[in-house]
Amino acid sequence: MSQPNNPTIGRDAELTLVICKPDAVERGLVGEIIGRLERRGLHLARAEMRQMDKETAATHYREHAGKPFYEGLIEYITRSPVLLLAVGGPVGTVQVVRRTIGATNPAEAGPGTIRGDLALTTEENLVHGSDSAESAQREVALFFPEL
Predict the structure, then answer these.
(1) Counting Cβ atoms within 10 Å, is residue 75 exposed (0-12), middle (13-18) or buried (19+)?
(2) Within a domain: residue 59?
(3) In total, how many domains does the chain have?
(4) What CATH number does the domain containing 133 carry?
(5) CA–CA separation, 38 vs 122, rounded Å?
(6) Residue 28 backbone class (left: φ over 0; alpha: ψ -120 to 50; beta: rest)
(7) Tens digit of pLDDT for each residue in 24-72?
(8) Burial of 121 (0-12, 13-18, 19+ CB in 10 A)
(9) SS (H, E, C) the chain
(10) By residue range, what is the domain housing residue 49?
(11) How would residue 4 be classed by pLDDT, with cut points 50, 70 and 90?
(12) Which of 43, 60, 64, 128 is catalytic?
């Protein structure tokens, strides 16, 4: 998502959404997660700790509505505060973040990834990262409309 008028992001930069999910906050891993993203050369355009309500969660996860895990996902993401991050960097940032996070299933996530090193289960896998540039635009706008 280009942000040509935002000096924090810079010209031709891309934004993506990262959510440090309830288990990341509860386990005290937020600093580690942010540190890994920053060590990749990415930066935080915005950050906000928030208790996600069910309506916002349903909007965010709408593509999963009707799937067997949907209700559990909504319960999980709304059970305690999350840290919402708008992460910025050069074009390709969405994919850099996805690789840094690792596979959804921690057992399949490579060593050196956030989930591979720190997550315990697929159901509680610490972080969400936008899966495409299009999703990133929609997700960042949902949580950070000012960007």
Answers:
(1) exposed
(2) no
(3) 1
(4) 3.30.70.141
(5) 24
(6) left
(7) 999 999 999 999 999 999 999 999 999 999 999 999 999 999 999 999 9
(8) exposed
(9) CCCCCCCCCCCCCEEEEEEECHHHHHCCCHHHHHHHHHHCCCEEEEEEEECCCHHHHHHHCHHHCCCCCHHHHHHHHCCCCEEEEEEEECCCHHHHHHHHHCCCCCCCCCCCCHHHHHCCCCCCCCEEECCCHHHHHHHHHHHCCCC
(10) 14-53+81-143
(11) very low
(12) 128
Backbone angles phi, psi at 90, to 5 degrees: -70, 170
The model carries a pTM of: 0.89
36: amino acid identity, one letter: R
In the predicted structure, residue 15 carries a pLDDT above the cut 80: yes
Could you tell me the CA-to-CA distances from 6 to 34, 89, 92, 101, 147 in Å, in that order?
Answer: 21, 13, 18, 26, 8
> CA-CA distance, 70 to 72, in Å (whole number)?
5
Q: Is position 64 annotated as part of the catalytic site? A: no
Amino acid at 122: T
Q: What are the residues facing 11 on neighbouring strands?
A: none
Question: Does residue 44 lie within any of the structural domains?
Answer: yes
